TrEMBL record:
Keywords tagged on the record: Aminoacyl-tRNA synthetase, ATP-binding, Ligase, Nucleotide-binding, Protein biosynthesis
Name used for this protein in its record: Methionyl/Leucyl tRNA synthetase domain-containing protein
UniProt-listed GO biological process terms: methionyl-tRNA aminoacylation
N-terminal signal peptide: none
Organismal lineage: Eukaryota, Metazoa, Chordata, Tunicata, Appendicularia
A GO MF label: methionine-tRNA ligase activity
UniProt source species: Oikopleura dioica (Tunicate)
Pfam annotation, one family: tRNA-synt_1g
Family: Belongs to the class-I aminoacyl-tRNA synthetase family.
Superkingdom of the organism of origin: Eukaryota
Amino acid sequence: DQLRILNANTKFVTCPIYYATSSPHIGHIHSSVIGDFYHRWNKINDVASKFSLGTDEHGQKIIRSAAQQGYDHPEILVNNISDLYRRTFKKFSISVASLDDAIFMRTTTSEHHQAAQKLWTRLRSKGFIKMQNYEGCAVNGHKLEWVSEENYIFEFEPFLNEIESWIVKAVAPDAAKILIDELKDRRKTGNMSLSISRPRNRVPWGVAVPNDANHTMYVWFEALINYLTAAGYGKHDNNALEFWPPQLQVIGIDIARFHCIFWPAMLLAAELPLPKKVFVHGHWTRDGMKMSKSLDNFVTPKELLELVGNQSDAVRWFCLKHATLKNVDFQDELLRIQSDADLANKIANLLSRTTSKNLNPSGAYPTLFPDSLLNAPDGEKYLIETVQGLPELYASFVNAGQLPNAMNCVIRAIEEGLQFMTNEKIFKLDRDILSERMKKDSGDDDEL
Ligand code: ME8
């Protein structure tokens, strides 16, 4: 039962599947823009790429939300919310359609049920899933109750060392440190198993445990498997996947424990390769506070679009510019000022100046040649160096997961371009001198 990867050259970028309990907000857009960015990065570099994101539609939270919102059945809620996510992502140019090689995952599909049950059966047959009597607190309706019930547990102690060395390779040092501290803690307290089922009579909305009608899979255990579902696990009878492992998994720090401890344990137990990299980002806060339902202070997609005159690219730019592990406080002015400064006053400004009829009457797109630098007047040399070095510098930041640096190095190059125009008093130069200089720099021009 040798694992076979049907498209071994395809890169796979994943985003979380978001709870289908309520409307999307800035945080969901943030993660999804980062994932979509890397998917597009693959594609512009001519690398085959798949991208997944979607909605997490099972479990007690969903049951409760549906009841609170007056729905007769959780299914109505998850259909509505899932659709809302899809429409919202489209507004922000986040790939959600199959045309973009994107897979929109929903955990209520039969493919996902099948994949989750297949993985469960595999781990059970390998002896990593056991039945246990559980005593502790559980939420029942709105009440916290002491329960004593049977449930299944997944034991991941055998994999702790492998997980630790994987974290060091796959996760950026600042986030890795947090995770390794948690591993130490678990070793100390002996907390090395995860409860992975709930009684079906308490949580009927979920994937059934194979061969046991009394249990539903714990939603987190099942939700993580969505990445395998997206890769075709369960679709094929034998041990084949369409592409695997993920090249990059984008997540928020809130779900790092699930993705960097439990998830690799599940994959190791199933003898499946681990993701290459995990991109862990921090959270947007508002007025210094966590955004939450009780405070009702989420930054909504509508607000974001209104702040930037409906230019969703400005929001994408803003997210990438702030894609760090540190939390960032959202302020209307921050989005407005930064998008004006970077996009309007710099990128658009340089573009319109360099393509204006006055400066560039033939609409030529000058190409830089290796010897441009040698022949350039002194005042131009630093600029040519910056422009020539930019693709490599940008790529090195992107590949290192340093998106704010990547965005900022583009802006710095543009600032140099603008500065150059001011220093050289480009607008005062004679048209003829200008077109002479353009010719000299670029040889044969490509038409714009
Ligand atoms: O946790 N700032 O879903 P979720 C930045 N269904 N990103 C944020 C954010 C914020 N304030 N709030 C949320 C779940 N996010 C599970 C995931 S995956 C197998 C299952 C982003 O709807 C961030 O990526 O609570 C975070 O990890 C995710 O949304 C959680 O979304």
